[in-house]
Amino acid sequence: MRVSGRIRILAALFAVLGLYALLELGILGFRCPQSEQQGSGGSHKIIPENTEHKDNSITVHLTSATNKPSTGFRRLRLREQDEARTTPQSDVNVLSLALKEMLSKVSRLEDLAREDRNRSEALIARQDSFLRDIEAEMKKETFSRRLKQEAADDDMFQLDRRAPPRVLTVPVGPGENGKATYIHGRDTRQAAEQLHNLYGYSVLVSDVISLDRKIPDQRHKLCLQEEYPDDLPQASVVMIFYNEALSVVLRSLHSIVSQSPPHLIGEIILVDDCSDKPDLMFPLEAHISTNSKLRNKVKVLRNPKREGLIRSRLKGVQQAQGPAVVFLDSHIECTPGWLEPLLARIRKNNSTVACPVIDHIDTKTFAYEQLRFLAGGFTWDLNFMWIYVNKEEMARRKSPIDPVRCPVMAGGLFAIYKDYFQHIGAYDPAMEIYGGENVEMSFRVWQCGGRVETVPCSRVGHIERTDKPYLYVRSNDTKDINIEVNKARVAEVWMDQYKRYLYARQPNLKNISHGDISERQALRKRLGCNSFQWYLENVYPDRLEHTVENGFFRAWGELRNVHTGLCLDFMDGRGVGLWDCHGQGGQQFFALRRPEKGKAIQTIGTGDMQCMGTEGTARLEVSIIKYCHNGLHESWYHNGKGGILLNTETGLCLDVGRNATSGTRAFVNNCTRTASQQWTFTEYFTP
Ligand SMILES: [Mn+2]
């Protein structure tokens, strides 16, 4: 593939580009209405200046029509690829960006091919010398024992004792084997940071890592002995994306196809929730349609307007052939053997929601890291949280690879039968964008006779983005979307009397409209579901510990200072001080809690895990401690309405001073029982 090959590719690209132009002009289809109201930085055009053909590669030089540095292109140097690269920005001219993307892809392919040749020659030379070393070392008894042990742990070296190893596949290249990749050079790092902020992870790192990189087997050894039935149900993967980086979406797709037996993946349904990044349009489809592994599996559906994760998934499922559906995020990487255990589990019990263990892909380096295996729970303000698997559940399981019952699933990744998904009420279609749907579905499945489990033999890597682009909701109609409303819908339909736990923490949710819930209530009746009390008792007893009914909470709500009438507030997340009472809970919600099991400390919590405490050398400042560790400095005594708050460690009282106003920091002081040391919670509970 020399000159004629390149001409063919270019011709194809320009044909594609022409088609794209028609689409852009609205002649061939829809455009997301949002892409017109895009960006905050004004409009910029990126103009191809000249195109340079040199050494089998094409370099397109681009300049920005404006002089704003933030929209210009930088020449970047990367460790692995020293070719000039340009950084796509969010608000560049769509057409030239598409052109640039395609041209750079051509040159990138050629680069990769050339690199591959050099690389494989170097690799063979390296492997040869490596093998010679091994053969010499193998003669030494101790080394051979150690090697055998390592070989058992590491599938990279498939050594066979009987025959000397011939071919070792040791992938090289950035990110291979799940290793970390680092960005070098100051300019590059700066550009990387900008993009990191835009996407919530380092796109530059993702872009240099192979789309089909190898991730080592992450499974427990016992998993390798598991045998799965031949007739596992075939799965349709449903994956929603919104303004994800192209290379991240593509790597997600490749990892599914590479790590799954082909007959078990019937299709991958990608739903674009109206992204406005141009490379997610043609470049994405061009890659899929020219890749033999993806071409026949992947279907792309596009929402003409933002629908959010929930309605997008419903749309994806509608198209799914089934019988199983596997939901995956668009920023994941599957690992060897991830699929079979999930499908085997739902096949065994068809009212199961089976979740993989979610490992961690680092947002900066894209390193794959195993996480400690945890279950999922919820906080009383209905956020998901990771929890330790409790002793009873540990004892119930006979093997470390037995599935773990999970009170709440994380929500992004799970397998379920399509029929069961529909039967159990799919999703609440009135929920907006994202958030709460995983809690809702978990309550519903458990309360209505199903179960949610994590299957330890299935491991999938996930990028926990530092910033979530889909949270920036630009509504198509003018109504403002408040995703917190989702929580109110969950509470109203599923939580019975326990909904007051949410409303105490977020009183505003009680008063705003959460929409019509009659259909969801009818669903609950139709399915004959259990009460929330039943759920707490049978599925999440640890949560039941932390209830008013159980005497855990002694008082809660706003914590008003008698002297000023102002409310205690954790203003910047750590510092605690006075602020005007806003009645919205959140940072002004405090709860007085009796000691945890086996502890002696009465604490004042803000969130479920946070505590108020004294800190610092002087121990006079009061702040929020992110994870309570039940130290004395977190211990408070309170003697009822208008009473003092005495810190046990210092023997001093919570005070704001005589001249306190909104914004004054709280501290501890000698107890004088003056009004500035008197405090009242909104609600007191008598044990
Ligand atoms: Mn995710």
Automatic annotation (TrEMBL):
InterPro entries: GalNAc-T, Glyco_trans_2-like, Nucleotide-diphossugar_trans, Ricin_B-like_lectins, Ricin_B_lectin. One of its GO terms (cellular component) is Golgi membrane. CDD domains: pp-GalNAc-T. Its cofactor is Mn(2+). Keywords: Disulfide bond, Glycoprotein, Glycosyltransferase, Golgi apparatus, Lectin, Manganese, Membrane, Signal-anchor, Transferase, Transmembrane, Transmembrane helix. SMART domains: RICIN (SM00458). GO terms for molecular function: carbohydrate binding; polypeptide N-acetylgalactosaminyltransferase activity. It is a single-pass type II membrane protein. Pathway: Protein modification; protein glycosylation. This is Polypeptide N-acetylgalactosaminyltransferase. The gene is GALNT1.
